Amino acid sequence: xxxxxxxxxxxxxxxxxxxxxxxxxxxxxxxxxxxxxxxxxxxxxxxxxxxxxxxxxxxxxxxxxxxxxxxxxxxxxxxxxxxxxxxxxxxxxxxxxxxxxxxxxxxxxxxxxxxxxxxxxxxxxxxxxxxxxxxxxxxxxxxxxxxxxxxxxxxxxxxxxxxxxxxxxxxxxxxxxxxxxxxxxxxxxxxxxxxxxxxxxxxxxxxxxxxxxxxxxxxxxxxxxxxxxxxxxxxxxxxxxxxxxxxxxxx
Length: 251
What we know:
By secondary structure, the chain is mainly alpha-helical. Helices cover 72% and strands 0% of the residues.
């Protein structure tokens, strides 16, 4: 019995020593300056998480349409147009269908955004990484936007244009209806009477406007994930993320 108790005491002592050594080693490790490899690896991991989460959300069924923060609506200049259409039989349903089609096109485009974004992440330089790490809550998202915007614009815009070109009520597409109505409005606005009444012409390029709104939504979602990782330790799902973002200060 005494031998058993002695063995248990020795084992407990060893386990306690091991735990203390592990704690010491971890403390020493955490106190070590970050290496360039760790910095760039942690930022790439954070960006990849942001991209995967955001794209998965937006590319899902009604990903844009059912998310009030990113739902794409017609420009404010369209209000006078949509009001008039809504007075016609089936007009309100037509407006809803146009908006649903636009958001659906954006979700389709989001499915193809991941490779573009991941390619940019993998090519991040140590200089880029250092600047991003020291930046604000959305520094990494801004890096992705700066390095990928044109490529994503080229991806999204044809899909939005295709959606706007679909025939709807009266065998007219949303784009044709927009062009016709803004054209008629601009004739009045640019006339002598219109200028006297201070009416303003509508010069909005509909497909470009809607594409930009779709991309705004994509980067908004990526930014939310980045901010969460920077501010909430629980969102740092790996040891590397915990180490890289442990001492960063948010703005």
